[in-house]
């Protein structure tokens, strides 16, 4: 098996698990702490806006290559195994949703960062 095939299979697994975690965050059988982590990870992963934009060289892909997979691994461990398999099966049949909550969160983070930078660098009266 080639390295490209391995990367494609890994990407499909990440996408499926993201949708499965999105489902887990909405299921009443999942413990509250697993719901919280699953919901946060799914919202971030499904958000059309990244914390670190991809156009920034090297670190732009850090969230895609490290933050999201590590978050998924943590959330998957928190969801009971039987339920996680059920969510994975359902996720394989569904289309990938888009997270409006994740989008709003990322917009809020960028606005907060801009306000902090303005406050730090705005000339102060003497």
- Kindly state the percentage of residues in helix: over 70%
The biggest beta sheet, please? none
Shape: globular
Rg measurement, Å: 17 Å
Q: Can you describe this structure?
A:
The protein is an all-alpha fold. The protein has one domain. Helices cover 71% and strands 0% of the residues. The protein contains five helices and no strands. The longest helix is centred in the N-terminal third of the chain and has 22 residues. It is globular, with a radius of gyration of 17 Å.
Structural descriptors:
126 residues; mainly alpha
Secondary-structure map:
Layout: H1 3-24, H2 32-46, H3 62-78, H4 81-93, H5 100-121
Helix pairs in contact: 1-2, 1-3, 1-4, 2-3, 2-5
Question: Summarize this, please?
Answer:
Helices cover 71% and strands 0% of the residues.
């Amino acid at each position: 098996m080639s390295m490209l095939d391995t990367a494609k299979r890994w990407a499909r697994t990440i996408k499926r698990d993201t949708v499965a975690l999105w489902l887990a965050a909405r299921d009443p059988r999942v413990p509250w702490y697993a719901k919280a982590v699953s919901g946060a990870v799914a919202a971030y992963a499904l958000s059309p806006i990244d914390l670190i934009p991809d156009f920034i060289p090297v670190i732009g892909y850090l969230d895609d290559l490290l933050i999201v997979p590590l978050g998924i691994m943590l959330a998957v461990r928190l969801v009971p195994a039987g339920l996680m398999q059920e969510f994975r099966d359902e996720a394989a049949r569904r289309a990938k949703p888009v997270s409006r909550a994740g989008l709003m969160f990322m917009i809020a983070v960028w606005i907060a960062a801009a306000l902090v930078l303005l406050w730090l660098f705005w000339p102060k009266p003497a």
